[in-house]
Amino acid sequence: MSYIPHTDADRKAMLAAIGVKSTDEFFADVPASVRFPDLDLPGPLSEPETMRELQELAGSNAHTGEFSCFLGAGAYNHFVPSIVNQMIMRGEFFTAYTPYQPEVSQGTLQAIYEYQSMICALTGMEASNASHYDGATSLAEAAVMAINHFRLKRKKIILSPLVHPHYRAVLRTYTQGMGLNIVGDDQLDLTLSDLVPLMDTDTAMVVAPYPDFLGGVEDLKPIADAAHGVGALLCVVANPVALGLLTPPGALGADMVVGEGQPLGIPISFGGPYLGFFATKKEYVRKMAGRLVGETVDASGKKGYVLTLATREQHIRREKATSNICTNQGLMAIAATVYLSTLGRNGLRQVAEVCYHRAHYAADRIGELSGYTVLRDRPFFHEFVVRCPRPVADINAELLDEYGIIGGYDLGQDYAHLDQHMLLAVTEMNMPDDIDDLANALEEIAKQ
Amino acid sequence: MTEPLIYDYSSPGRAGITMPQPDVPLASFADLPNGLVRDPQTLDLPEVSQLDVVRHFTHLSALNHSIDKGFYPLGSCTMKYNPRINEETARLPGFAFSHPMQDPLTAQGNLALMYQLQEWLKEIGGFAAVTLQPAAGAHGEFTGILMMRAYHLDRGDAARKKILIPNSAHGTNPASTTMSGLEVVELPSDSRGNIDLEALRQACGPDVVGLMITNPNTLGLFEEHIEDVVKLVHGCGGLIYGDGANMNAMVGIARPGDLGFDVLHYNLHKTFSTPHGGGGPGSGPVGVSERLADFLPAPLVAIVEDGDDDEPPLYGFITPKKTIGRMKAFHGQFGMHVRAYTYMRVHGAEGLRENSEVAVLNANYLLAKLKGAYYLPYDRVCKHEFVLEGHWADAPDVHALDISKRLMDYGIHPPTNYFPLIVKEALMIEPTETESKETLDQFAEVMLTIAKEAHESPQVLKTAPHVTPVARLDEVRAAKELVLCCRPLPEWAE
Ligand SMILES: Cc1ncc(COP(=O)(O)O)c(C=O)c1O
After folding, report:
1. Given A120, A179, B344, B374, which is the most exposed site by the fewest CB atoms within 10 A?
2. Is the CB of B138 under 6 A from ligand 1?
């Protein structure tokens, strides 16, 4: 099976028009020793058979359509309104390319312009780009931007250990050729205020999570002031749904706000495709990576949108570009725009509040159980830490097998001092009954 | 035809959806640090009905050209049909609603799919191992160059700093090199569009990390001295990076690994039909030869316990011994992996090879029809695309961009303009295998008409497009005035 429309007659006519006998002649310049290998791939299937095979693969996974889920750790099980999928399934959006030719791409361009506007509104910043691959690569690009902003004269990045472990790993991978000094997360129990003594005039950027990987919320103002005190930039890694309830980082002194846009109407889909958002102040826009949509007018004065400041980008600047990024997450940005338009000012606030209240209810319920301790040393948004009576992996296995619940994240994997600690996330998808079921299940599991 | 901003539909109190009310004992916001509860007035999002949202985005979508609407011969981008079955499989609940952090034991279907995809990409490219982590082509390049760098450092060879890149290369190649902390050395091309072998010979030395090559290159031409090129680079201790953007010409035709390539990124969003989404998401898996396999980003999917007749194997995540680290959170663009898997399953080896053959057939057919009316700077059998010059000495006012804009009047998306840089006024045309002879004939006719117009009534081209929602836009003004956001600045901004 294939999607090729040619009949035998078409092929013949085309080969004749070109003046060759067979398509093999097109490949005469390919070394004969390697030409036309036999590929050992499974034979073709019809569409119904293909669908069946994929259904079987998909069906063998545990998933949130079937189980109640309290797993977060950077990917959050929120409700995706039907309208989001319906809109991004329009072929005019999803079968278009990057809007290089603005006259025939106003749909994508305006949607991205609205996306940029909403990201600014959410984060309290002045300029947003059109997206990065995910939250982790957004953070890495922020580091590159900060280093370039100081023209490679400042080489230190200070990372809170409570930034998502994957994000910290990606930042290190990205910058391994740049000779940076990345500190702060070598000791995994440092708080934001512990980072202040590390700051000096070699510091290009300080990274603070909001909320952090353990769900905690800390005031950003003191760390912003401290960072600015040594002339460094503050990058905040934010959860966009939390910003429905929390004061935006822009109002607290952030110079860049980055994060994972997945909670804004994008399915968890085993980790991708997601949406890296990136917002900053206008003064740094020329140093920013990624595509930007700007407003302008056409020859007759009509309003329209174009990709702008391309002189920062690889296709113009090549080795001097601010980044190598080309394809980004355009369709995911449109999904987030549809989501934010649909929820609006009140809807996003409401979702954030429901997450907050239900998470606190869950923490209260679990905190009452013997054997479990909820760490409440710091305020939290919709994710919190529970010390468990047994290894987290064992508890999770029982939760799934016996109770049909996808449990929390095993923090011992990343934080040695949090062995036997579970990170639980609660969203509007976890109904109060589900929370009671979780608490009851945990109680029984503790007794075994 | 223009569409107001979504904010223009906003009216205080309107809502697009009913979400749950808080239905548990309310927790106090006073627990949050002082001043951290947001004033709802600062949450400047539109307040609109759901129908407003549907109409708005439906109107916006109508302003786009797309593969679904018409021919899209955008060179280097492989704008082939995006099969609908892929969209459905990627959205199966078991895929779309599985969590990236859940125990791999509970996501064996996902891991099996990723493992198979790794295996098939290994086979198609002739490689020892494949990572699915990179999110797009450029991300794959960056991954590959970091591995090449790490490979030399691991051998204790810290003197290698240079990446050789032909001047026909895409801009991401040099940009990815800089991000990796390495230096770009640009190589000239010869009169047939190949890498200039003599220049390559001179550039090869003990300071070379490797060569980045696109084959077929961005002119759509197969490198005629590919074996010599590989020999020269390997001879000086360097590695070969393949930019796989053009793999749609090569599947089942030749395996880059067999040609001696050490690394190559695939573009699932080109060769394997996953949609471009108006600028992404893509997916850029990277294949490597044996000597680079230990440096792949972590984690990879592997069989951790063999299966037998009754039990399937057990899949898990593993970390390569000398990994460069993580390139992305979680496991890559998983939804794109599902689509590419579906596509490969529908085609099998022969179907995939036929795609490449017909992609090349279609390109050569168009080339034969157009090369009389347009100047073809490198006159050779092309692969899946070719580059014409969009300029005539006897029509000096007309430029490639004018031809592109005029194509819009005929309902056709323009070719890629002004790239590759070695052809001035480039029109890079890639028809793909899913276009019919009728579509190609019609396109050729339009191109011939435009060539005629260029000579007889150039003004029609200069003022094009005439039927699009907007006319040519003032890009200088956009960059100068820099309006990136439609809302007033927040009060705390200076
Ligand atoms: C030849 C070539 N290399 C690299 C890229 C970059 O790939 P991506 O946009 O997927 O990052 C492109 C994209 O258009 C390309 O055409």
Report:
1. A179
2. yes
Is B245 touching ligand 1 by the criterion CB < 6 Å?
Answer: yes
Where residue B419 falls among pLDDT bands split at 50, 70, 90?
A: confident
Interchain pair B47, A397: CB under 8 A: no
Q: Whose Cα sits closest to atom 8 in ligand 1?
A: B137
> Which residue reads 């690569």 in tokens?
A137
Residue B35: phi and psi, rounded to 5, are 80, 5
pLDDT at residue B99, as a whole number:
98
Choose the residue to mutate in B267, B271, B328 for probing ligand 1, maximizing ligand atoms within 8 Å of C-beta: B267
| Residue-wise pLDDT tens digits, A198-220 | 999 999 999 999 999 999 999 99
Q: Which atom of ligand 1 is nearest to the CA of B267?
A: 10
Q: Considering Cα of A238, then A329, then A307, then A148, what sign does the dihedral take? A: positive
Rounded mean pLDDT of B289-301?
Answer: 97
The domain locations on chain B are: 84-345
Nearest CB partner across the interface for A58, out of B42, B93, B367 = B93
Q: Just give the CATH number of A68-79+345-447.
A: 3.90.1150.10
Among B296, B266, B293, B294, which residue's Cα sits nearest to residue B282?
B266
Whose tokens are 């970091």? That residue is B146
pLDDT for the residue numbered A353: 98
Fold of B84-345: Aspartate Aminotransferase; domain 2 (3.40.640)
Q: What percent of chain A has pLDDT over 70?
A: 100
pLDDT digits (tens, 9 = 90+) for A283-304: 999 999 999 999 999 999 999 9
pLDDT in tens, A68-78: 999 999 999 99
B42 touches chain A (CB under 8 A): yes
Asked whether the ipTM of the predicted complex exceeds the cut of 0.85, the reply is yes
Mutate to test the pocket of ligand 1, among B72, B74, B76 (most ligand atoms within 8 A of CB): B76
Is the pLDDT assigned to residue A313 strictly greater than 90? no
- How far apart (Å, rounded) are the C-alpha atoms in residues B214 and B211? 10
Residue nearest to atom 5 of ligand 1 (CA): B137
pLDDT tens sequence across B303-345:
999 999 999 999 999 999 999 999 999 999 999 999 999 999 9
Q: Is the dihedral of CA B362, B364, B369, B374 positive or negative?
A: positive
For residue B436, the SS3 value is: coil
Ligand 1 geometric centre to CA of B255 (Å):
20
Q: Is the CB of B82 inside 8 Å of chain A's CB atoms?
A: yes
Q: Do A327 and B276 touch (CB under 8 A)?
A: yes
- Biggest CA–CA distance in chain B, Å, is 80
Span from the CA of B64 to the centroid of ligand 1 (angstroms): 21
* Residue B184: pLDDT over 90: yes
3-state secondary structure of B187: strand
**Does B493 score more than 80 pLDDT?**
no
Q: Give per-residue pLDDT as tens, B2-14.
A: 899 999 999 999 9
Query: Which atom number of ligand 1 is nearest to the Cα of residue A327?
Result: 9
Where are the domain boundaries for CATH 3.90.1150.10 in chain A? 68-79+345-447
Query: Of B454, B447, B457, which is closest to residue B396 (Cα–Cα)?
Result: B454
User: Alpha helix locations (H) across B189-268?
Assistant: 197-203, 226-235
In CATH, A82-339 is 3.40.640.10 = yes
Work out which ligand 1 atom sits closest to the CA atom of B218. Answer: 1
Interchain proximity B88–A51, CB inside 8 Å = yes
**Which residue intervals of chain A bear CATH 3.40.640.10?**
82-339
Cβ under 8 Å to A: B residues 462-481: 463, 465, 468-475, 477-479, 481
Q: What are the tens digits of pLDDT across the range B466-488?
A: 999 999 999 999 999 999 999 98
**Given the structure tokens 């032909």, which residue do they identify?**
B166
- Ligand 1 pocket, residue B82 CB under 6 Å: no
State if residue B420 touches ligand 1 by the CB under 6 angstroms criterion.
Answer: no
Q: What is the DSSP letter of B23?
A: -
